[in-house]
């Protein structure tokens, strides 16, 4: 029997969110058929909306000079604030977004080069967790600390 293939392109509205789309296809002919009941098919397909997320960050301290090797002090350096923002530029609502951040907190000889003092959140929940058990924390090599953007 002859076959026909075609592609359907559906466009959806931002104001009405659907979880599935239904399409009914029917083939007709001027000829007499013995089994016309198989000329109709009804398809139902789930709809998944693509998110349009934008991640940005900003800090009030763009450069800080770390003491030379072997001269780390135990005093705290300057406090700086880093803002991380997740924006949804799409017209569909997004739920259950999780953002994982790993901060390079150790330097040469396991010296602490970064510690979090407090966290402020807006429309989000933040959980500070140590690395999972068994995870090896790799210090930032001294040579990596020499290459900074000024």
Description of the structure:
- This protein has 150 residues and is mainly β.
- It is built from 1 helix and 4 strands.
- The longest helix is centred in the C-terminal third of the chain and has 5 residues, at 142-146.
Strand order of the largest sheet: 1-2
Query: Quick one: biggest sheet?
Result: 2 strands, antiparallel
* Total number of helices: 1
Q: How many strands? A: 4
The shape is: elongated
Fraction of residues in β-strands: 15-25%
What's the pLDDT, averaged over the residues? 80
What is the CA-CA span between the terminal residues? 71 Å
Which structural class is indicated by helix and strand composition?
A: mainly beta
State the helicity in percent bands. Answer: under 10%
Structural Rg:
29 Å
Low-confidence stretches: none
Give me the strand/helix succession: EEEEH
Keywords:
3% helix; elongated; mainly beta; 150 residues; two-stranded antiparallel ribbon
Topology:
Layout: E1 20-26, E2 40-46, E3 53-59, E4 82-88, H1 142-146
Antiparallel strand pairs: 1-2, 3-4
Short description:
By secondary structure, this protein is mainly beta. Helices cover 3% and strands 19% of the residues.
């Amino acid at each position: 029997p002859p076959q026909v293939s075609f592609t359907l392109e559906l466009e959806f509205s931002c104001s009405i969110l659907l979880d599935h789309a239904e399409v009914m296809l029917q083939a007709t002919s001027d000829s007499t058929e013995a089994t016309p009941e198989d000329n109709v098919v009804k398809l139902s397909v789930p709809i998944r909306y693509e998110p349009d997320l934008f991640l940005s960050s900003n800090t009030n301290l763009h450069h800080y000079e770390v003491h030379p090797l072997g001269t780390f002090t135990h005093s705290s350096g300057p406090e700086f604030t880093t803002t991380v923002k997740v924006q949804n530029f799409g017209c569909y609502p997004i739920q259950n977004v999780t953002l994982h951040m790993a901060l390079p907190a150790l330097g040469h000889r396991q010296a602490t080069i970064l510690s979090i003092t407090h966290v402020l959140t807006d429309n989000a929940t933040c959980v500070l967790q140590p690395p999972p058990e068994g995870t090896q924390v790799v210090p930032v090599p001294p040579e990596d600390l020499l290459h900074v953007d000024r």
